Amino acid sequence: MIGYFDPKTDRDLGTPASLSTTLITLEIDGEQVQVPEGTSVMRAAALAGINIPKLCATDSLKSFGSCRVCLVEIEGRRGYPASCTTPVSEGMVVRTETPRINKLRKNVMELYISDHPLDCLTCPSNGNCELQDMVGVVGLREVRYGLSVSNHLHLPKDTSNPYFTFDPSKCILCSRCVRACEETQGTFALTINSRGFDSKITAGANEAFMDSECVSCGACVQACPTATLSENTVIEFGQADHSVITTCAYCGVGCSFKAEMKGNRVVNMVPYKDGKANRGHACVKGRFAFGYATHQDRITQPMIRDRIDQPWRTVSWDEAFQFAASRIRQIQDQYGTNSVGAITSSRCTNEETYLVQKLVRAAFGNNNVDTCARVCHSPTGYGLKMTLGESAGTQDFDSVEHTDVVMVIGANPTDAHPVFGSRLKKRLRQGARLIVVDPRQIDLLKGPHYQADHHLQLRPGTNVAFINAMAHTIISEGLEHKDFITARCDQAAYQQWLSFISDSRHSPEATEAITGIPAAELRAAARLYASEGNSAIYYGLGVTEHSQGSTMVTGIANLAMLTGNFGRPGVGVNPLRGQNNVQGSCDMGSFPHELPGYRHVSDSSVRQLFEQEWQVSLADQPGLRIPNMFEAAIAGSFKALYCQGEDIAQSDPNTQHVEAALGSLECLIVQDIFLNETAKYAHVLLPGATFLEKNGTFTNAERRIARVRKAMPPLAGKEDWQVTQGLAAALGYTMPYQHPSEIMDEIARLTPSFHGVSYARLEELGSIQWPCNDEHPQGTPVMHEESFTIGQGHFIPTEFVPTEERVNGRYPLLLTTGRILSQYNVGAQTRRTANVAWHAEDVLELHPHDAEERGISDGDWVGISSRAGHTVLRACVSSRMQPGVVYTTFHHPFSGANVITTDNSDWATNCPEYKVTAVQAEKVTEISKWQERFRHHDNHQRQLLNESQAEV
Questions:
Q1: Is 49 left (phi over 0), alpha (psi -120 to 50) or beta?
Q2: What pLDDT digit, counting tens, does each position of 77-96 carry?
Q3: Which of 143, 535, 765, 932 is deepest in the core (most CB within 10 A)?
């Protein structure tokens, strides 16, 4: 095993840990054992190094007691109780090995094997099968009951799922898969059908896995002790021979995985049970969708060309660096220092992102660096910095286990952050109350054994009016937390805000016509949030991607301060970050006005620290944001861009505007793993490395810094940090690092919240939540416990300003966008995996009333027009939508979802207003003009790429 690994935590101890602080002393096989009250006998024995045989038991699930293999003798008790369901008691004397117990266990195992295929040598689980292990443990050597009588060996396999095979002939009905689906995932897609000998595991109503409610998270596969549920990669390639612990490169949850390897081949990805963010769980993307890393489309050699209508020329790394550096210097000589810039990636590591912004500031000589966080969570940084003093969420994911009321605003956790979504659903099943604020009906609203108390189905663009009405209700009904406000908040600011929010124009009754939320419903939700114990807010891009995104984040912070929901587990303000390292890319100084640690470039004392470390003079004026870069490119003053791992041609709004900007550049350097939409406009294409090919760290949505460890060599020979290092050297600026750990050491020296972070500390602790420094050497799970970073919390008035994007007779519908479970961001990774089986194209969801009014049926081609452009999608008539609102995803480039989004943006940060676009939808029979041009451009650029590869 490579990387942080604690055998004590990776061992399966049979049953979950007890949370009791009361210790119990007992005797097991002559040894004195002390464990917390409520611990099972099985777990107590395992902690003492005594392994009791088991099949149905696993420490990720509640004890079940069905297999009867774990029988023990307890002095003074009759019979042979199951050790997994028997709690310890003071003075208990347990014997785990006696002749009678051994005989009983052998008889039980004999019954299991009598209805099980004896094909161990060719079974995909051979060498990693708990049933096989237990046969050896109990010493079973023959089976008296033949297979000639009734058995289950004839049951057919279910191969419908692209990632795993269900072979019911090998099932022992331990129910671990059923329990994992219920307890870990919360989907309840599996059940035991029928009774007695006819009992069998089924998905849904006896359906194929792909036709059922199964979300392919893999929890059932991981829980299965036999080959009943087997990953297809294991079936094809065999069992792994070693593992590397790393961090998932999909969403902002930051799940820890064991990359199970056979040589340099990834056989499967198993969620690491000691991962603090995921606690041993995963989703379909992280668990199975890793095949893109070795996809045939990977760019593995540097390439250059003088114009984008020319074929690529494959060159050496040094030639590519020299070509790019020469172009940059020529452009700066002709157009000035500020004519070049860079965009960092939220998919790359902290260390790689840090180097790109360092390259811009130290080698380009300006502050023209920005990141994709500009188009997603930049309002989070602004709003939380202004009110609380820190540009990050306040809690860890474990905090939700202490929450009494959850308010989810503009987020869809079960699709975009599914592992946290599962933890959230578990808490809701335990009794937490739920408020969902979303224009659309999301899956979280109702699940097995819970239902949301309130769905506030507001109109897109009215977030601030809603949050003001919530605060007004709490004030007008005397529900504010006066003691917290007095002790923790700036009183002058509070009084100014109080005067603002008390105005009757913010009442639910006055805002009902704006938001569409019934006043009585909003008041009830406000009372629930303010009055029922620990209340937590989780929000996503439905909050930030608006013209008032920063105002809304400020309003959320105001509401949490007003009710005292800071400084302890179960509360707080929690932004759900979209990509794996959005938080980290912001922390590392990727904004044009801030150095690492969110310190303004105009601060001479801060600049001096970096100047001494980097041995250069730094510019003191903020550089260009991404939208400014586009405008300047079209105007002719911005001529070169280095784009690291970010597909701005697909992800940024008003696609035709972005394409015009990219087409205006004299030098576009793209560093990526595929020929993405942006790379089709590039002059230099530098191969990138996937997370499986590099060392570094990611920082997730809970500020958790976790190691990324190389599992296989980079296909192109370099990790991404080495690529940036090579470009810097060609520009005459040396970055003499030998390993990413040295880059992190520099980050720690220069960034106060990272002062205590090092690879050695990460190996010791597994992961660390910043701030980590002398005051918090172990990190900080919960922020603002005693005081806010800013000192006293700062209430700020949040005036509702309607968006300029209005519906009218020509554009009577509002388009909002989002994500889907199986796909990730622009889809460059997930579209190159079997995940396309669930989502092969983006569709337009619209309400039945809107569809009927336009003569649109399910599956029809629909033309969507906005003030920015026109595209065509298939229709999905859905009651999830409210009348007048339509919805689509943006995972497929041909869909052109961002062709129709406008360049309206947040007033403070320029975060695009993806969530509010006025459109018209009508039935059509052919694709749009833009899609025709896209198809031609795409085919041409692929042909140019193929020509260069054919020459090689």
A1: left
A2: 999 999 999 999 999 999 99
A3: 535
Q: Which helix (H) or strand (E) holds 573?
A: strand 573-575
At 820, the amino acid letter reads I
pTM of the entire predicted model? 0.95
Choice among 17-21, 374-378, 624-628 with the minimum mean pLDDT:
374-378
Q: Taking the CA of residue 83 as centre, how many other CA atoms within 13 Å lie in the half-sphere pointing to its CB? A: 32
Beta-carbon count within 10 A of 832 CB: 20
The Cα–Cα gap between 365 and 338 comes to 8
Helices 463-476 and 508-515 sit at what angle, rounded to 10 degrees?
Answer: 160
Site of tokens 């026109």: 870
The C-alpha atoms of residue 371 and residue 374 are separated, in whole angstroms, by: 6
Distance CA 268, CA 264 (A): 12
Please give the residue that has the higher pLDDT: either 515 or 145. 515
What does the alpha-carbon distance between residue 901 and residue 914 come to, in Å, rounded to a whole number? 6
Count CB neighbours of 139 within 10 A.
Answer: 10
Q: What are all long-range contacts of 300-307, with beta carbons under 8 Å and residues at least 24 apart?
A: 300/687, 300/715, 300/716, 301/687, 301/716, 301/952, 302/684, 302/685, 302/686, 302/687, 302/716, 303/684, 303/685, 303/948, 304/683, 304/684, 304/685, 305/683, 305/944, 306/683, 307/683
Q: Chain-wide mean pLDDT for the chain?
A: 95
Q: What is the pLDDT of residue 5?
A: 47
Beta strands in 58-138 (DSSP E): 73-74, 93-95
Say if residue 143's pLDDT is above 90: no
Residue among 307, 364, 368 nearest 333 (CA): 364
Nearest Cα to 900, choosing from 932, 863, 874, 860? 863
Q: Is the peptide bond before 592 cis (omega within 30 degrees of 0)?
A: no
Confidence band, pLDDT 50/70/90 cuts, at residue 196: confident
Rounded to an integer, what distance in angstroms lies between the CA atom of residue 577 and that of residue 120?
A: 45
Report the pLDDT averaged over residues 333-341. 97
| CA–CA distance, 36 with 176 (Å, rounded to integer) | 25
**How much is the pLDDT for 578?**
84
Q: What are the distances in angstroms from CA 186 to CA 26, 138, 316, 533?
A: 35, 34, 51, 24
Convert the pLDDT of each residue in 765-777 to its tens digit. Answer: 999 999 999 999 9
Strands 917-923 and 861-866 turn out to be: antiparallel
| Helix intervals (H) in 808-928 | 848-853, 897-900
Give the integer Cα–Cα distance in Å for 747 and 47: 40
Kindly write down the DSSP assignment for every residue of 610-652, as one continuous string. Answer: HHHHHTS----S----HHHHHHHHHHTS--EEEEES--HHHHS
For the stretch 144-164, pLDDT in tens is 876 666 788 889 999 999 999
Angle between helices 720-730 and 317-335 (to 10 degrees): 50
pLDDT at 236 over 90: yes
Residue 495: how many CB atoms within 10 A of its CB?
11
Query: What's the count of helices (H) and strands (E) in the chain, helices before strands?
Result: 31, 36
Work out whether the CA dihedral 707, 708, 710, 711 comes out positive or negative. positive
